[in-house]
Amino acid sequence: MRADRQEQDLKFTRRALIMSGLGGIAFTGLAGRLYALQVLENERYRLLSEDNQFNYYLLPPSRGRILDRFGVPIAENRDSYRALLVPEQAGDLEAALDRLAQYMPLSDYTRTRILRTARQQERFRAITIEDDLDWQTFSAINMNAPDLAGITPDVGEVRAYPYGAAFAHVVGYVQAPNDEDILNNPREAERLLRHPGFRIGKTGVESAREMDLRGSAGALKTEVNARGRVIRELPDQSEPPQAGQDVVMTLDADIQRFAHERLGQESASAVVMDVNTGELIALVSTPSFDPNLFVGGISVRDYAALRENDHNPLFHKSIQGTYPPGSTFKAVVAAAALEHGLVDPSETIRCTGSTRLGPREFHCWRRQGHGPVNLHEAVKTSCDIFFYEMADRLGIDRLYDMAVRFGVGQEFDIGISGVRSGLMPNPAWLRGRYDEPWTTGHTYNAGIGQGAVSMSPLQLAVMTARVASGRAVEPTLYRNALARPAEHIGLSEESLARVRAGLRGVVHEPGGTSYSLGGLGIEGVEMAGKTGTAQVYSITAEERASGVRSQEDLPWRLRDHGLFMCYAPADRPKYACVVVVEHGGGSSAATRPARDILRRVVARDPSSRPGVFADLSASQRGGA
Amino acid sequence: MAVFRETVPRDLQGKLMELNWTLVLLLILLGLAGIGMLYSVGGGSWSPWALNHTIRLGVGLAAMVVIAMFPPRFWMGVSYPAYVVALLLLVLVEVMGVSINGAQRWVDLGPIRIQPSEIMKLAIVFALARYYHDLPSEKVTSISGLLPPLMIIGAPAILVLGQPDLGTTLLLAATGVAVIFMAGLSWWFILVVGAIGLIGMVGIGLYGLENILADYQMDRVRAFTNPDFDPLGINYHPNQAVITLGSGGMTGKGFLEGTQSKLGYLPEMQTDYIFTALGEEFGFVGGIAILAINALIMAQAVAIAISCKSPFLRLLTIGITTTYASYVFINIGMVSRLLPVVGVPLPLISYGGTVVLAVLAGFGLILGAHIHRNAEPPRGAGLFG
């Protein structure tokens, strides 16, 4: 009995130790597990717990401004007043929106959107009720804040274009990025691009200088709980946003606006350029549109109206429109003939109104002819017969080379996209394009800027500037304090002087095609210019017979384009101005606007009109 | 030859003198850790949990000492009646139980709401200890002697399984089997059952676990084996628990400095997940300290069991210790993702009145066993025997 008892005790002890051993193994397993988690993998879980603990709220950067040459903002940021709804604080959302509706109109669409958003996200997250409220509405909401529980007035930033339509094409506009924009941007920018209210440049300078203007986003570090509610903000551990850089343009807001208004509703373009530096002072295309409409998202109806307008308001005509330069091109032909010694300034050619080339007859614009004309007269009166002869003497190759030197057919990078290069034809091009041999007829046509020759208003301005200054200026849109006058184009000063004299004669000598203009209109400052007409449609013999005699009798879209290039002061050129009026019915549609714009530019620049100082000192003397 | 007879203290003072203070101290230590952590997860405040927990610990410790004073004869007497009452309560749950979190586990008895399955864990130990105390030693290894214990375990297990609560069912069964094993079950039998169990498991494996478990149980198994399964749903809390623990590192973020526990990434931080808060604020060192205290408590309890002369006290002590050990193991195993999610609290640290009282009552019995270790109540003895 005793032995049995002892054996029982031993058995129990043995089994108790076995159980303890199993327990020991289990606890060792737990300890090992804790070691793995807390010591070996600590770093990973520490980071995960910080991820949990902190949220980074993106702080969008202020977009850089776009300034004109004097620092006047043409694109800036304006405070945008908006109303936010925080469902958690509002209680009954329908009732809260009903109360708000007393102070601002709320469409059914807006209501549905807000209620749907409120159902989808956490109740403490704010929902934008309406962006860009007017001041009255915003202050009404502010004043009645005690009645409007859960509705928070808030101020954000929105892009604004104070000059409206005047800069629409060159400066462009910003819009909310689409999926393609997000794909085209670096991955790290995605979060910023997806930020509600963030806008990127879509066209013009806004698009071309996006990276400078954008700046970089900051982050507000916040501690959040498991449901995402912000417990506290940690400003000293946050990173402030870096505002974008301002971009300074060469444009002059005053000239730009004036030119835009002067062209009115014509389908036209104007380019003003500093002839020595190539700085673009105005780059206008009309009709235009209000870029402010695009910032918040343009309505389908407004956009359709812009698209369907036959005057093409969305098209940037001053860099994208290309037209036969017409008679303006004669300045280049004259310069080439003089430079190659193919014409003596005193040599006259008899204009009878037409000349025969094989079976074809080539006409002068003046049917009755100019009689005997020398180069000066030919430029002044724009005699076609004289320039057929000049072109023939030069031959297409030399004409082509000279045109290229003046920028025809050249692509100019002015720092925005969409610049067209136009075309200077030559035999190689004709063969490649149409598989046709080059004939003297083609040379004749090129000699008066017709046929396949085509130039954008920007190129016309470059050509004008190069004639006026003798320098190979390149057009530029961005102000550069270190900009120097361009290199000389390499033509003799004598040839250029003769061409310039002819161009001055156009405006200031009796018989000049623009003599009726009466000059610049500033005492003591003369201008030079050249008219041009780009034929759109030939009036047929039948039409002529049935009474269609002039451009006014044709439908608008068949009328000729009117061109005018000019510069001033004629003796010391400083500014070039080009105006092209599509379907203006002839050059006269362009001359007056161009002259008015040029006058405005010259009047603004005291250095180019010594008369002002003379007058001033005279009046001071008189007053003394 | 003068035989030194070890005696059983008969009066209150003698019994108090025999109290195992080491065990009491270790239990108080755990309780203090619990108060500290509840103060922390309460946001550095005595309310809503820390103060209540302190009071419950006080009441529980007092009850523990009172329970320790009762003689084994008394406990032997209430063993079967307690089991029957617990079984009836389990049936009551089936009939009129309160459903919490989709499982019927609670009985609402006016002012108090009790969880009969918790009571059953103790009652099973009582019943089995009593049964084997009365069983002649030669019958312990026989098949016929094994049938009543299997019924004692089987009846409540089936009822709890129907709640449904697979975790508690397995716990009940494990506790019961541990007691049977300790009572002296023959190794042959263990081997045979083990072989059958192995074949069964292979069979289940071949048959496919998904054909046996309910969909929600299968999801839990999938979630357990793959942390990326449904990370914002069924796996969200287990994964967050691991982050909470792991982010503590070697020495922790410091008392009251836990971020996971304060920011609400885990539900019921004060109950089942309290150990993660401890691990976050006190790190690996803190976690090991809790494991060590528990290991010492269990070692002490096993030593008491071995020192007891009567089979009843031995089996009672070892049964309670096994239950306690499985609580600790399952809780820490669950929050560290070593085991699937089972709703088991961490004794004396987790908030919850029933568990604190049940655990301290259990240790009251163990302390009582220590005091009365030399008692040798006869077979069949009882309250009135």
Write up this protein.
The complex is a heterodimer of chains A (624) and B (385). Chain A contains 25 helices and 19 strands. The longest helix of chain A is centred in the N-terminal third of the chain and has 39 residues, at 2-40. Mean pLDDT of chain A is 88; it is low at 609-624. Chain A has two domains: 62-248, Penicillin-binding protein 2a (Domain 2) (Alpha-Beta Complex); 253-304 and 312-608, Beta-lactamase. Chain A has 624 residues and is of the alpha+beta class. The N and C termini of chain A lie far apart (147 Å). Chain B is built from 13 helices and three strands, in the order H-H-H-H-E-E-E-H-H-H-H-H-H-H-H-H. A three-stranded antiparallel β-sheet of chain B has the order 1-2-3. In chain B, a hairpin with a 2-residue loop joins strand 2 and strand 3. In chain B, helix 5 packs antiparallel against helix 6 and helix 10 (236-246) crosses helix 11. The chains are: A alpha+beta (624), B mainly alpha (385). The A-B interface holds A 4, 8, 11-13, 15-16, 19-20, 23-24, 26-27, 29-31, 33-35, 37-39, 41-42, 44-46, 48-50, 52-53, 223-227, 231 and B 137, 178, 181-182, 184, 240, 242-250, 259-260, 263-265, 279-280, 283-284, 287-288, 291, 294-295, 298-299, 302, 305-306, 314, 318, 322, 325, 329, 332-333, 336, 338.
